[in-house]
Design goal:
heterodimer, A: about 375 residues, 4-stranded parallel beta sheet, 8 strands, about 55% helix, B: about 475 residues
Chain lengths: ~375, ~475
């Protein structure tokens, strides 16, 4: 696809572009990609957001051991490792790191960047349930973030600029959703690996170029006739799907399955909901990013997420679920236990729970388990 | 078979005789046999200053609670559980609003750990049951919550009618209780908050953090009233507040007495059962206060007599989290000739004592996490540092529980901060407060011995 290639070319030169922007005095705002940081606020103050979403490499995990013991989520340790190793310029050129604190794993990134580097770090809290007090708390955090961004960039965030940024981000989410929904088809025109890469590009790319690319990609995919529909359809879910951590997607596709939908707390862009631009815009952001967002496993009660997963699995007519979690993300490890029981009761489809510490030695066992799972799904679904 | 054991736990003969049917029943359910009792007696004599009446009285409170816990379903209408890190005041205020016969309150994880773990060294079956039922091994799940889940699943203790749990300090209690809710249908009230202050904020905190946690406390009290069918009373709140403050401040006096004494007058393990009564609700308020008064007097007497459990002039250390199930770790550190001046979280830092403007009960509960370690990593490190300074230690042993998500991120930051700020060495040890299967005092001994040598040499050099 031509548009995909153009996007890929853009990403290849994006770092140079970001460096140029920074030299011109434009602030680069890095953030932890748990889906609670409205990029709209960053755009509205004339800065550029950069999601820190790399993962899947063993070296940063090893590097992080000098700064934090290993009993913290692998992705979070990786972020510390990437910064300390100095191998990825994106982790070094950011002017401010914003960390929405969801749990102690994510908080560790902020703590280590604060203590061991000279990075500016700003945190705000994400409560673990959704009553009105929690909503107000999250909103208070967003207001504090707005103040911080205004102070940091020297630019006021007015409603006009914020509305413009919301429109742009809404369009991006709409397009990602449209493209994602194409996978409901019996013959999905884009596979899970390609979609994940496309999704990840949204964290780095220039938003206007990205949206233009999505428009073209969507048009092309709508017309595309995909081959080989006789593959088990899989829902991939878990704690974090980082950019570069594509092993499960690759292995599942290679084993003969189609990942037709994914749901992750971190690392991917959440696109199901848009910001409703009526009334107070800060409230509208909090409404979209907190109240209406599908909650991760560390939310209570867990029923909203569990119901969402079941509903999505039905909606996309999946034959099985792969639950992919990272080491020491206890919320996912615990929820997997009771979700599997619920899945059995509600849908009677198989679930495979996988765990990774981004270690190379995991690949062999992971491949065997995924291949076996796909064979089971094939045998049960008759696809 | 257990008369001697219960006497070591401060029971009088009359009480043992009177309580025999209940103890027999509870021990049968718990599977405690003669061999366990003998092991318990041996461990009490080996690790604690069991000759002190104060120590024995504290043990007694925990043993009574163990029996109460096991028999709670047949003796009470409603059962309410909590556990670390929930603070005591909200629990006590709820408990004291109820009639003793009607509702039983407990922190079952702590009770089992303090008795089945500390005394009988028989925790493994509970841990395994917890691992098999949703908190699997190898993933660094909190062993406290594995223990309580395992005990419920095995039928040793009843499932509660309500669980009240705090999620402001660490992630796992609430996650584990969500499992209890989803799989076993237990209603759970969460005391939620966010550990989100920016670096440099400590000891400041946002008013909206207090208000949010306060709103969660209100919800928790409301759920308690609905489930248990009792109204919270002002008298209960006042009594809880007063009793908590009196006990906590007296305990503070005790550890300050201990921490500045040379030689170290009693084993640090002898303080554990007293300390955890700062978070375990018991209706025996007078009993625990009396035990503390007695223990304070006994420690003072030892200091006056110049008696100690390590040599006079021994290097003093600050130690973190070796408390709980395995007294062998703390004991081993003392055996290497180090005086443990202070353990975290025994001492209340000046920030906890600071005045705040909140007077409404729920907001007073909400402000608690903002004044102490749950404030932030920065607070955790600052409080560690303050401990070292206040007790003028020669070194620190940062024993961290590997399954504690709150603690783990602070380990290297604490080490570097103490070494840089105070110029004293810090030894990092990895272990667990509750699950002793993956490490042992023996394994750690070589490292502690080397550290002790280093501190002795440094102290001698300093002395000139």
């Amino acid at each position: 696809m031509e548009a995909m290639k153009q996007l890929s070319d853009h990403l290849a030169t994006r770092l140079t572009e970001l460096t140029r922007l920074r030299r011109k005095g434009i602030k680069l705002i890095g953030y932890a990609p748990g889906g609670y940081m409205p990029e709209e606020l960053v755009y509205a103050c004339g800065a550029v957001p950069v999601g820190l979403i790399r993962g899947g490499d063993p070296e940063p995990v090893a590097e992080s051991a000098a700064y934090v013991p290993r009993f913290i989520d692998t992705f979070c340790r990786s972020q510390i490792g990437y910064r300390m190793m100095g191998g990825d310029p994106l982790y070094e050129i950011i002017d401010l790191l914003v960390v929405p604190v969801t749990d102690h794993n994510i908080k560790t990134i902020a703590d280590c960047f604060n203590f061991f580097t000279n990075t500016n770090v700003f945190r705000f809290g994400v409560p673990h349930q959704k009553d009105e007090n929690a909503f107000e708390y999250y909103l208070a955090g967003l207001r504090a973030l707005k103040d911080k961004l205004e102070e940091f960039t020297g630019n006021k965030i007015d409603d006009g600029r914020l509305r413009e940024a919301i429109d742009l981000c809404n369009r991006m989410r709409e397009l990602l959703k449209e493209i994602s929904l194409l996978r409901k088809s019996e013959r999905p025109p884009i596979n899970g690996y390609e979609f994940a890469k496309l999704n990840h590009a949204s964290f780095i790319a220039d938003k206007r170029i990205y949206v233009d690319a999505l428009e073209s990609i969507y048009r092309e995919l709508k017309e595309k006739h995909a081959p080989n529909p006789k593959r088990p359809r899989i829902l991939l879910t878990g704690s974090t799907l980082a950019m570069g951590d594509y092993k499960v997607l690759e292995m599942a596709e290679a084993a003969g399955a189609s990942i037709v939908i994914e749901e992750f707390a971190e690392g991917v862009r959440h696109y199901w909901e848009n910001v409703r631009v009526n009334g107070d815009l800060m409230q509208a952001l909090a409404d979209r990013y907190f109240r209406r967002r599908v909650p991760p496993a560390w939310f209570r009660p867990s029923r909203e997420r569990l119901d969402y997963l079941i509903e999505t699995a039905r909606d996309f007519k999946v034959d099985g679920i792969i639950w992919y979690q990272l080491m020491y993300r206890s919320s996912y490890d615990i929820q997997a236990f009771y979700f599997e029981k619920l899945l059995k009761k509600e849908m009677d489809i198989p679930m495979l729970k996988l765990e990774s510490d981004y270690d190379v030695s995991e690949r062999g066992p992971l491949r065997t388990r995924i291949e076996t799972f796909v064979e089971i799904a094939k045998a049960r679904g008759g696809r | 078979m257990y008369t001697e054991l219960f006497k070591l736990c401060g029971f009088e003969s009359d009480e043992i005789k009177r309580e025999k049917p209940r103890i027999d029943k509870a021990f049968k359910i718990l599977g405690i046999d003669n061999e366990d009792v003998k092991r318990g007696e041996k461990r009490l004599k080996q690790y604690l200053d069991i000759e002190l009446l104060g120590v024995r009285k504290f043990l007694g409170i925990w043993m009574r609670e163990l029996v109460n816990l096991v028999l709670a379903r047949e003796e009470h209408e409603k059962i309410v559980y909590s556990d670390f890190p929930m603070e005591l005041r909200p629990l006590m205020s709820m408990m004291l609003s109820t009639d003793e016969k009607k509702a039983y309150f407990a922190t079952p994880g702590q009770i089992i750990n303090m008795t089945i773990g500390q005394i009988f060294d028989k925790l493994t079956p509970f841990l395994v049951a917890g691992e098999e039922n949703g908190l699997p091994p190898g993933a660094a799940h909190c062993a406290l919550y594995q223990t309580r889940l395992g005990a419920m699943v095995k039928g040793v203790i009843p499932f509660p009618d309500l669980s009240v749990i705090a999620s402001y300090h660490c992630d796992q209690p609430a996650e584990a209780e969500q499992l209890l809710h989803e799989v076993y249908g237990v209603p759970v009230a969460y005391l939620d908050s966010c550990s989100d202050p920016n670096w440099g904020d400590w000891p400041k905190f946002n008013d909206y953090r207090v208000r949010y946690c306060g709103s969660q406390a209100r919800k928790m009290f409301q759920m308690f009233e609905e489930v248990v069918g009792c109204k919270m009373t002002e008298e209960a709140k006042r009594t809880a507040n007063r009793a908590n403050a009196i006990f906590r401040l007296k305990f503070q006096q005790l550890i300050e007495l201990m921490g500045h004494a040379d030689p170290q007058p009693i084993h640090q393990t002898s303080l554990v059962h007293a300390f955890f009564l700062n978070s375990m609700p018991t209706r025996d308020i007078e009993g625990k206060q009396e035990a503390l008064e007695i223990l304070c007097g006994e420690v003072e007497e030892r200091i006056n007599q110049g008696k100690g459990v390590v040599p006079k002039g021994a290097p003093g250390v600050f130690v973190t989290a070796t408390i709980s199930v395995d007294p062998g770790i703390t004991h081993m550190i003392e055996e290497t000739g180090l005086a443990i001046r202070i353990q975290i979280p025994f001492w209340l830092s000046p920030w906890v004592m600071a005045r705040h403007p909140y007077r409404e009960w729920a907001d007073m509960i909400g402000v608690g996490p903002c004044l102490d370690i749950p404030h932030s990593c920065e607070a955790h490190v600052a409080i560690n540092l303050a401990n070292c300074k206040a007790f003028n230690v020669d070194g620190a042993i940062n024993f961290y529980p590997y399954s504690c998500r709150e603690w783990v991120p602070t380990v290297m930051i604490t080490k570097k901060t103490i070494e840089k700020e105070l110029g004293i060495p810090v030894l990092v040890l990895e272990g667990d407060c509750y699950d002793t299967r993956n490490y042992s005092a023996g394994q750690l001994r070589t490292r502690v011995e080397t550290f002790a040598e280093l501190l002795r040499a440094a102290k001698a050099a300093k002395a000139g």
